[in-house]
Write a structure and sequence with these properties.
Distance between the termini: 122 Å
Largest sheet: 3 strands, antiparallel
Number of strands: 6
Shape: elongated
Protein name: Type IV pilus biogenesis
Strand order of the largest sheet: 1-2-3
Number of helices: 2
Helix content: 25-40%
Length: about 170
């Protein structure tokens, strides 16, 4: 008995929703307008076009099977990207990467050089591969994958190398 009011409220809510839903639905279907008739004819035309497209697809599939069947009497088309033209006047890339020795410092068995902006000693690895084999006052020997290379300092920057300098 204590839930009787709750049940009654629930039933009343259901009845109100049902009557509202029934009152909202139209009593009859609206008459078919000219716009709907035109849309129906366009839909029929689209269906015919879809059927024609499917028939063409099946014909193309049959042709593709015939092309790839391996018979010599049929021709197949192939599209290949052309190779880029090689410019005969283009500069040839050097065998070794470009290296620059900007400074050599030698004092009391301490040998260091500034190579490609890196302060390196004998045995140190360099950027872009390679390592320093030896450092002398006027040159640096670098071992790279391509081979061994000696880079000499410009004589103008070596103290005492030019005439007239102390």
């Amino acid at each position: 008995m204590k839930y009787l009011g709750l049940i009654a409220a629930g039933l009343l809510l259901i009845v109100l929703l049902a009557t509202w839903k029934l009152a909202d639905t139209p009593r009859s279907l609206p008459p078919v307008s000219a716009d709907r008739a035109g849309l129906q004819s366009q839909l029929r035309e689209a269906d015919v076009e879809v059927q024609r497209t499917r028939a063409l697809k099946y014909q193309l599939d049959a042709l593709a099977l015939g092309v790839y069947s391996g018979t010599e009497s049929e021709t197949a088309l192939a599209f290949v990207r052309p190779r880029p033209a090689i410019d005969p006047d283009a500069p040839v890339e050097p065998r070794f990467p470009e290296r620059e020795v900007s400074m050599i410092y030698i004092a009391h068995g301490f040998e260091r050089a500034m190579i490609d902006g890196v302060y390196a000693g004998e045995g140190d690895r360099l950027p872009h591969g390679g390592w320093v084999k030896s450092i002398s006052p006027d040159r640096v020997v670098i071992v790279e994958r391509e081979g061994t290379r000696t880079i000499a300092l410009d004589p103008r920057v070596i103290p005492g190398a030019q005439e007239g300098r102390p």
